[in-house]
Design goal:
The protein is of the alpha+beta class. It has 20 helices and 31 strands. Helices cover about 35% and strands about 25% of the residues. Strand 9 and strand 10 form a beta hairpin. The radius of gyration is 48 Å and the shape is elongated.
């Protein structure tokens, strides 16, 4: 350690041990040795005093020996510590409590040679803006815990300041420069593996990252020292001087603000590559060199594979990409002029084989003083596909909600129309001249109800009536109708698995799905062909993932409907289940067939997939879960119920709650005609007020489900607290399970979907009462 000449402690020293105790022991031994002779004590006492004094002398000699050994050991340890600190490459200081420097090593002398200060705070003032506060904070922590450390960001970089408390009240300080952290600004380029230098207006090298320092072998201060020829030619080969000799590099210049620019230097092996193509061809990233006019000057092999093009002279960027949202020429011109932001754009490639999206980043460079654009391409097909799927799911959900709402309102209107038509038919017999018109109104109302059921099927809000089915029996019953649908040119072939399992589905809706698929297959073969309908029981040992769907493992029944028709284009495959989308000519299809089939199958708990090859045919595969006989109670074989006519007369009090006035008017008239006493209410709140009369006896609640204010199930549960034995009939234009799925079931209740006829309403009420 080097001591400061003005310091009270010129170097790191080791204090000698305390000698007071040794002196006291020797004086006491001498006094006990002389005292018997001087005071003429008896011989026995004198001999005892002599023995004690000799013992004290022996103890003193032992103390001298022990202190000498301890002193030598401490001196050796001190020499080792002093030598370690002296040879340490990190600047080290020894200070007292007040911060005065007692000693420092050679690294500290070299590091802070610009000015010698007596205190550590004065020495560090060239590094830290406020060293006194930092030193006081660290010294206080070291006084408590023995050591402290802190990383400090300075204008020169990062500094780590550490302090250790030493014996005797001194402090050992170490000032260490640490590697800079990547910050995203200019010096964040330390993390970039490509050699990069920052050059000022005058050609001064302002910054070199670690890769550049490793390539060049030293720090350089100007481009004149680095490049053999100036000016630097971006996009071309340039020669730089390194410690190992001249090296050819491909220079790329990126302009920055305030007259600064960044030069990226990529070392090139010119032995096997030409000077004009070595840069682009060797990069593992799709690169394009584009003129401001849009002409593609060059492209590397990675870009050729991504764009699926071969280099030619008349190739333009606008011919290869689309979907910018503004003219491509404006984007290129603004970027070449430095007016456009460096934001990436997502574009669609003009490829015929498949749909590909790329993320394009344009950067302006200069070659021979003229601006040139470098386009970096990144395959973003998967990202855009996920985005499109998310948007599509949101769109389908919104359309489903709209369809369900429209269907609900239509069901209310159809209930009123068909109901009042039933009332009119009761007063007209077949000989009446108005009877035919009423029948037409009734039939068209039923057709409208069928259309509404398709909307509900698409939105998966229709009311299903599932039953245990054998698909072979269902297809056998449907074969005659299907043969009539396909015509004479098309052959319909059915093939069944001999070991078939049962499914649980709505037979009428399943037939609708099969008819839609068969009709589509017929239309795809205008010149005739064969339609195959195959059934099979399959067992999936592992989940089947396909078309963004995941079919769980287990037992399934599959139905395949395949044709030999024209097929479907690959880019249209993802849209076939969308509502109102059709591949047929205008006027030949509504676009609701496949979307309705999709909704029915999904509501049943199944899956539907499509496979198609252009000009070779299409195949639809339907998956239905096998009905577990042991998991579901066996439906008892009901004895044939004789068809009974609708009751002509009923007894009882009915509380009718319906917010739609036309529906309420029809229902109340229909029930009164059958002899029931009807109490009307237009809202749930009115119904509860009516029931406040304790003397009122009500046998049946007939209530709508969705109403303004309190809904049907809510007010019924409230009313049943006082009238637990009252029967309930829920009516709604929505499906039975489309509302209140988390609420408990209402006891003694049935559901009647809208639109319902006069006889359906009166029969349902009669069945509840009896």
């Amino acid at each position: 350690m080097t001591g400061r000449p003005t310091s009270s402690v010129p170097s790191l020293r080791v204090n000698t041990p305390e000698n007071k105790r040794l002196l006291i022991v020797l004086l006491l031994a001498g006094a006990m040795l002389v005292a018997p002779w001087a005071l003429e004590w008896p011989d026995r006492v004198s001999r005892g005093m002599l023995a004690v004094s000799l013992t004290l002398v022996a103890v003193a000699l032992l103390m001298v020996l022990q202190s000498r050994v301890r002193l030598n050991a401490r001196a050796m340890a001190t020499d080792l510590l002093t030598g370690f600190i002296e040879k340490d490459a990190t600047p080290t200081f020894v200070t007292d409590v007040d911060g005065s420097i007692h000693a420092c090593n050679e690294a500290a002398v070299k590091r802070f040679s610009e000015g010698k200060q007596e205190t550590l705070a004065g020495t560090l003032r060239s590094v830290l803006a406020n060293p006194t506060a930092v030193l006081f904070r660290l010294q206080s922590q070291a006084a408590k815990s023995g050591a402290a450390r802190e990383d400090i960001v300075t204008r020169r970089g990062h500094v780590r300041l550490a302090v250790h408390q030493m014996q005797g009240g001194s402090f050992l300080w170490r000032v260490e420069d640490i590697a800079e952290r990547s910050s995203g600004s200019g010096r964040g380029a330390e993390a970039v593996p490509i050699p990069m230098i920052t050059v000022g207006r005058s050609g001064a090298v302002l910054f070199m990252n670690e890769a550049a320092r490793k390539l060049i072998g030293e720090r350089v201060k100007s481009t004149e020292r680095l490049f053999t020829a100036l000016p630097v030619n971006p996009g071309q080969l340039n020669t730089i001087m390194t410690q190992s000799g001249p090296v050819d590099v491909l220079a790329t210049e990126l302009n920055r603000t305030q007259g600064r620019s960044e030069l990226y230097l990529m070392e090139v092996d010119t032995s096997g590559l030409s000077a004009s193509s070595s840069g682009f061809e060797s990069l593992p990233v799709p690169f394009l060199k584009v003129a401001p006019s849009g002409d593609i000057l060059s492209l590397n092999k990675m870009a050729q594979r991504l764009l699926a093009v071969e280099p030619r002279d008349d190739l333009k960027l606008g011919q290869l990409m689309e979907g910018l949202g503004r003219p491509m020429s404006d984007w290129l011109r603004d970027t070449a002029a430095g007016l456009a932001s460096n934001k990436s754009e997502f574009l669609r490639l003009s490829r015929r084989d498949r749909e590909v999206f790329v993320q394009v980043t344009l950067t302006r460079t200069f070659e021979e003083g003229a601006p040139v654009l470098i386009a970096v391409l990144n395959d973003a097909t998967e990202l855009k596909t996920l985005e499109a799927q998310f948007v599509q799911s949101q769109k389908m959900q919104a359309i489903g909600q709209l369809a369900g709402g429209v269907a609900h309102d239509f069901n209310n209107l159809l209930t009123a129309i068909s109901g009042h038509c039933d009332l009119l038919l009761l007063r007209h017999d077949q000989g009446d001249q108005d009877y035919g018109d009423l029948i037409q109104i009734h039939e068209n109302a039923n057709r409208a109800a069928s259309l509404v059921s398709q909307l509900l099927a698409f939105s998966r809000k229709q009311t299903l009536q599932p039953e245990i089915l054998d698909v072979r029996d269902t297809l056998s019953d449907l074969t005659h109708l299907l043969n009539r649908l396909v015509g004479e040119k098309v052959t319909l072939t059915l093939s069944h698995d001999p070991v078939m399992r049962s499914i649980r589905a709505d037979k009428r809706q399943l037939e609708q799905v099969l008819m839609n698929l068969v009709v589509n297959a017929r239309d795809a073969m205008p010149n005739g062909g064969e339609i195959r309908v195959e059934t099979e029981a399959v067992t999936l040992t592992a989940p089947l993932e396909r078309d963004r769907a995941k079919v769980p493992a287990g037992d399934w029944v599959t139905i395949r409907v395949s044709d030999e028709g024209v097929g479907i284009d690959p880019d249209k495959m993802q849209k076939v289940f969308e509502p109102f989308y059709t591949t047929k000519r205008t006027g030949e299809g509504t676009g609701l067939g496949l979307s309705t089939a999709y909704g029915i199958i999904k509501q049943t708990g199944g899956y539907i997939f499509i496979d198609s090859v252009k000009d070779h045919g299409t195949r639809f595969t339907l998956f239905f879960p096998v009905h577990k006989q042991d998991a579901v109670e066996h439906a008892p074989v009901e004895a044939p119920v004789e068809e009974t006519a609708a009751p002509q007369h009923g007894e009882g009090v009915v509380l009718l709650v319906e917010d739609e006035a036309p529906v309420r008017a029809f229902a109340s008239r229909a029930l009164r005609m059958r002899g029931y006493t009807v109490l009307e209410a237009e809202s749930a709140e009115d119904a509860l007020r009516t029931l406040e009369d304790p003397g009122l006896s009500v046998d049946v609640f007939v209530t709508d489900v969705v109403m303004p204010g309190m809904d049907g199930p809510s007010w019924v549960r409230e009313a049943l607290k006082e009238r637990p034995d009252t029967r309930v009939v829920f009516v709604s234009g929505y499906a039975e399970g489309a509302f209140g799925e988390t609420d408990p079931d209402v006891p003694n209740s049935v559901f009647l979907p809208k639109p319902f006829s006069l006889s359906q309403l009166t029969e349902t009420v009669h069945a509840q009462l009896h």
